[in-house]
Please model this.
Amino acid sequence: MKTTIKYTTFNREDKNDKMQLYKMTSARESVKVSDLAGQTITMDDFVIFDREADDGTQTTVMMFLYNGNMYGTISRSFIDVFENFINAGFDPEFAKTVKIGSATSKKGRTFLTAEIV
Model:
């Protein structure tokens, strides 16, 4: 399995941050972001990375720390908000406060939403 970090608010030069970054990108379990739907939170730090499985399939993952817990999601609608913000030239540090929501698609599926505040 190969991991490629795309964006992070962690300081890659700091030993403790590097260890936390490793733990987050190799984690197999986390709290579901959907548990925070309806809340506005300020994350401690986050990382967005691509994980490539042995069969070549690639998944984009976002993990973040909040209130001592590690949260994770593969929701494209949620992750796209952060990637678009950063790709527009904004500092990832300004994306730490976010209103988390959920919506229902035309097909009846629930998905995550995010609004940077």
About this structure: The beta strands are 2-8, 31-32, 40-42, 45-52, 58-66, 69-73, 97-104, 110-116. Residues 2-116 form one domain. The chain has two helices and eight strands.
